[in-house]
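Blinded run. Sample ID left blank on purpose so nobody reads anything into the name before looking at the predicted structure. Input follows.
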Amino acid sequence: MPVNFKLMIINSIVWNVDPEIFRIGSLAVRWYGLLFALGFVFGYIIMGKIFKAEHIPPKVLDTLTTYMVVGTVIGARLGHCLFYEPEYYMKNPIMILKVWEGGLASHGAAIGILLALYLLSRKIKKPYMWILDRVVIVVALAGLCIRMGNLMNSEIYGTETTLPWGFIFARENETVAKHPTQIYEGLSYLLIFFLLYYIYRKNTKNLKPGLIFGLFLILLFGVRFFIEFIKEPQVGFEANMSLNMGQLLSIPFILVGIVIVFRAMRQHQ
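Blinded prediction complete.
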């Protein structure tokens, strides 16, 4: 047994990163919070370039950012509480407000963003699909930042693996290598970002409404669906499910994406 354990260590990566960058008294600055914020910073910069190229006033970008932040945080928090631990949070509703204790769901964030951007489209008098086609480009990049935050927290990792890049998450008292699914997802989201941005740059003047948004839904939630097969269950009730909650929530987004792309390809500008 000791020999096998040593061989396992050699062929894997021991991950034992402190999730806190530094602490001042009771105030702690964490990697997750920093990376979460960086997702919005990068998004603001890229959307600024897009809006400038399309002659959209800078104040619209500031309004967009506000709606995005509020929609993301509220949606992600409520998504986790309602999709993954509804019984606990229904009994302890005050705990929903304690976002700093963790518990955010990407599917909830997606719903929150969609609702926030619908309200924004009414406010700024821009077509809803016009906004979605541009915003989802940076959402894919923000997904990379969030998954790297999960990695720094040693959370949402995969099942056991013998691959040489497996991570032993020491802070979670793991003794065997697990798939670093945070990295798998993060790199996938980065590729999706580059693809969507490329399509946008090449077709800015003749972009079919809904094409980028539909592709985003298919690709991002498709990646999420397949990677979930090698993830550890996030909550107890998922253990005996053939498809876990993340996969079940991804399917509607993928189907909607297929319909939107189909309609976009058939319509004329």
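Unblinding after everyone has recorded impressions. The chain has one domain: 18-153+180-266.
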